[in-house]
Amino acid sequence: MTQVELTPDLTVTLIDSMGNDDSVTHAARVSIVGARAETEEGERKGLLNFLMSNGHLSPFEHVTATMMLEVPIFVTREIQRHRAFSYNEISARYAKRPPKFYAPQFDRELHQIGKPGKYTFEVGTDDEMLVVWSEMRFAYQTAWDAYERLLENGVAREVARNCLPVGIFTAFYMTGNLRNWMGFLSLRTAPDALFEIREVAFRIEQELYKVAPACMELWDRAGRGL
């Protein structure tokens, strides 16, 4: 039987993009001048600031980005609640997944305190985290062994995959426009968001800075909200 791999690493890769900071200013100006026009850097920043400050957000929809996310299933399902994006995910119905599973990094909070809607979280001890890793490794290995036994006995992947827990890694494309990406980040980088989805969101933010740095800087300075 194959030994499982445990990792806390969550991966975001910029696959493709269309447009940049200038695309936003061109889209904003078309309603005024009716044609594409070059914009000086100072003028561009001023116009972007005006759009962001006054809620004129449709021009930001003319920049798009596609990310490849490699994250565990429990993070994937929460991300895919954002219906303004397009998704394509690796299917365990057709392809055997590698035995790669999520276990939290050692500074991840372990203890949930309080009532529903008013939770706070506290970091556990090193000994407690070692117990978490040990129990997860046992559970993951048990599930993976069952999955492989079913496959070896000729059971279809779409049936055998039912043994696999939500901690197994999957990978998917996620495509959206800059306005929707900013909205996603506003929610998912918030302090009360799930720890793992915050980690993913901060990585997405870094990739978006490569696409439209002036827009992202203004969004950050404006309070990270839409």
Keywords:
alpha+beta, Gyrase A, domain 2, 4-stranded antiparallel β-sheet, two-stranded parallel ribbon, 8 strands, 45% helix, 20% strand
Per the CATH scheme, the topology name of one domain is Gyrase A, domain 2
pLDDT averaged residue by residue: 92
Number of helices: 8
The class by helix and strand makeup works out as: alpha+beta
CATH class of one domain: Alpha Beta
Could you estimate the helical fraction of the residues in percent?
40-55%
Write the layout of secondary structure elements.
Blueprint: E1 5-7, E2 11-18, H1 21-33, H2 41-53, E3 64-72, H3 73-79, E4 86-89, E5 100-102, E6 109-113, E7 120-123, H4 126-152, H5 157-160, E8 169-177, H6 178-188, H7 195-211, H8 213-221
Helix pairs in contact: 1-2, 2-8, 6-7, 7-8
How would you portray this structure in words?
The protein is of the alpha+beta class. It has a domain at 5-18 and 66-176: Gyrase A, domain 2 (2-Layer Sandwich), CATH 3.30.1360.170. 45% of the residues lie in helices and 20% in strands. The protein contains eight helices and eight strands; from the N terminus they run ββααβαββββααβααα. The strands form three sheets. It has a four-stranded antiparallel β-sheet. A two-stranded parallel sheet has the order 1-5. Strand 6 (109-113) and strand 7 form a beta hairpin. Helix 1 crosses helix 2 (41-53), helix 2 crosses helix 8 (213-221) and helix 6 (178-188) packs antiparallel against helix 7 (195-211). The chain is globular.
